[in-house]
UniProtKB/TrEMBL annotation:
Substrate binds at K229. This is serine-type D-Ala-D-Ala carboxypeptidase. The active site is at S58 (acyl-ester intermediate), K61 (proton acceptor), S118. It comes from Wansuia hejianensis. GO terms for molecular function: serine-type D-Ala-D-Ala carboxypeptidase activity. Residues 1-25 form the signal peptide. One of its GO terms (biological process) is regulation of cell shape. Keywords: Carboxypeptidase, Cell shape, Cell wall biogenesis/degradation, Hydrolase, Peptidoglycan synthesis, Protease, Signal.
Amino acid sequence: MKKVLCSLLSFLLIFLMMTPAEVRAELEISAPSVLLLEESTGQVLYEKNADEQRSPASITKIMTLILIFDELEKGTISLTDEVVTSAHAKSMGGSQVFLEEGEKQTVETLIKCIVVASGNDASVAMAEYIAGSESDFVARMNARAAELGMTATKFEDCCGLTDSAGHYTTARDVALMSRELVTHYPQILNYSSIWMEDITHVTAQGTKPFTLSNTNKLIRSYEGCVGLKTGSTSTAKYCVSAVAQRNGITLIAVVMGAPDHKVRFTDASVLLNYGFGSCTLYEDENQEEFNPVPVENSITKEVKVAYAEKFRYLETEGRDLSQIQKTVELPEKVTAPVKKGETAGRAVYTLDGQEIGSVAILYQKDVEAAEYVDYVKLLWKQYLRFGNKDSQDEVPAEG
């Protein structure tokens, strides 16, 4: 017993002395392809065969959800719109919520059906509602993937039901689209974190309740898990893109090709545990307002400047983030013309004498260069202002 205890203590000591890179090498991951990403910075914390093209199964629906929320943001559809189920949508096999042809459900209900219960029928119904046909919607999916830099992805349907060799993506690309959805449409987490919820089918046959049950079991078994999407087919095996939040940090763990559903959740948990245990997020909460920068060669005397974004830095080496220092680099003056959105300077952040990142400081308005006629107009305005004042002063007071 004493020898066992000594061995355990020795192992613990060795583990604590390991560098993060050595710890990463020790992660026990069974799935052939995984990636762990921190959401706010986009920093990859761990990867294994992350660029290997694989069938994604229902995690395809992450892109479907992005396009749905794109349309909601543009105002072309609303959550209360009623969507009519087509015969094609009803015919979908695999995971479904058993929509009937002609059945009406709101956009919000169908979002829940897609992200909670992985409804293929709901996905196709929404695709047809937005684009007119599933094929046109899939074309939009591929265009959106290209915009996000998902260079190793091609979609052939909107739900991932196909096992076609022409429908593929990678763990890296899944992380990219997961981050896009969570970052730009964080309200998705209100839906993806639902464990169980009832919807109501209203058809010619009558009214009946149907219970949506979340396919992502990490929602209940992993502290802080709030989404996002699972998938499985005979070709894809078992996949998950899991989102979890702790202590202000949001992590995205993508697992593809796991041999069974238990392994995909175990691997995702291992990745998330590593991430939360090894990283600390620094956010500059004191991004001050700057004095306007004086402008030369213009009637406008100064121009406002401001940070382009909040500075975030993810520390994985355990250093003391209270020692981060910031230096602001701004010109004493600028010569017109100046364009809104152009870089005026930057704030540079250093730790232990090394630069760890920077944030651009941008001009907040256009400032045109002055021409001869501008100066003439200015002199004329000044003459009218001060000349009239002098004339009024010379008029004797009545009395």
